[in-house]
Amino acid sequence: MRVGSHIPTKYKAMKILIPTPLRQYAEKRDTIEVQAGNVGEALSALTTQHPDLRRHLYTDDGRLRAFVNVYVNDEDIRYLQKEQTALQENDTISIIPSIAGGCCCCCCR
Amino acid sequence: MLKIQQSIFDEMRHHGEETYPHECCGVLLGVFGGDDAREVKALARAGNTRTDSPENRYNIDPRELVRIQREGRERGFDIVGFYHSHPDHPAQWSKTDLAEAHWIGCSYVITSVQQRAADQTNSFVLCGTDEESKRFENEELIVG
User: Fold this and answer.
1) Which of A76, A109, B22, B85 has a C-alpha 20 to 30 A away from that of B116?
2) A31 located within any domain
3) Higher pLDDT, A7 or B124
4) Domain-located, residue A42
5) Number of domains within chain A
């Protein structure tokens, strides 16, 4: 171990990829680097750095919005341990708003 | 304004003909320019996961979006918009399209496919600042 390089083992360095519609609330950056032990901590660090992101990610009662998908590498956190999902060094978190719709004649204009 | 090369425009419309009578869907990769302009540099087809009602609904698997976004970034492209088809319906956004649109600042391109032939293609930009104020506005589509 290098002297002076100690980082608490709980915290891992990782990247959060910011989708295009949310970059305006993150100083127009496409990637934010944070240190965290799990997904919830990573998102908390993100919204602490960029508070304007919070209302776009969370409902008023503090839950992730239904259309906001959060992936760790290629895995949906809903099928892992959700916001308690543990992170490894150099994991990449992707925030992906859903894409859906359709002509659905019952509700066309 | 959305700029798109003729070959990509043709491929997008052809996708809708291939999947008829089901809706097709995909992602437009490119760059953001000034003055609210987006330029498409590549197209990524996606599967329609709405197998329960594919003739009038579409959904892109988020996992596929993660992959497309990653591969786009590796090429220096951002997600600038999305496309889908309306089989035997007009190339106009529906209430469903608006309710399920969340990428503010991106283009949503819709192609009407009539009896397996691509007809009108229109582009709409999702405007607003949040879920409560979002709205579609017509935008100029420049092909060439």
Assistant:
1) A109
2) yes
3) B124
4) yes
5) 1
CB contact under 8 A, B105 and A21: yes
Domain interval for residue A29: 12-99
Banded model confidence at residue A85, pLDDT cuts 50, 70, 90: very high
Tell me the CATH number at A48: 3.10.20.30
- Which residues in A lie closer than 8 A to residue B97 (C-beta atoms)? 101-103
Percent of the residues in chain B that have a pLDDT greater than 90, as a whole number: 98
Q: Is ipTM > 0.90 here?
A: yes
Domains and CATH numbers, chain B: 2-143 (3.40.140.10)
- Say if the Cβ atoms of B102 and A103 lie within 8 Å: no
Sign (positive or negative) of CA dihedral A3, A92, B78, B95: negative
Q: Name the amino acid, one letter, at A11.
A: Y
Q: What is the pLDDT of residue A5?
A: 44
On whether residue A83 sits in a domain, the answer given is yes
Q: Using DSSP, state whether A77 is helix, strand or coil.
A: helix
